[in-house]
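User: Please predict the structure of the protein below. I'd like the answer in structure-token form so I can feed it into my own downstream comparison script.

Assistant: Understood. Taking the following sequence of 145 residues as input:
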Amino acid sequence: MPRVLIVDDKEENRYVLKNFFKLFGMNSGIEIEEASSGTNAVEQAKKYKPDLIIMDVKMESDYAGLDATKAIRSDEVIKNTPIWALTSQAMEAHDDEEGDRDKCIKAGCNDYITKPFDQVQLIQKVARLLKLEIPQKTRMRMGIE
């Protein structure tokens, strides 16, 4: 059974993501865990050893999500867990200053997703990573071939 840890300080954002995973259907077996802070994210990751972490970057401090990512990457047991940064920040790199995507990747995130996220793109990425089948009903509704 795949386990996903959703990390966001805003309950409504965690709710949206939890509902997103329902698109895989009742029989997907996906277990969802939640964390509302960077510190809590590290604790939950150690406890549940998820197969994917979706990490909000900007939480109780500007880069709490990136600090949590670095802490997870330094833990021998969970350091290889895929972490996808989820952020409403989409600043491009300028001159000698890093963009948000670069900061996330440099901190140890494997991917970078901006809010609002594209449901079709995200469901396909999740399905590939977790080796899940997207139900036909969902495929038809979302226009996925």
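That's the full token string. The domain at 3-142 is CATH 3.40.50.2300 (Rossmann fold).
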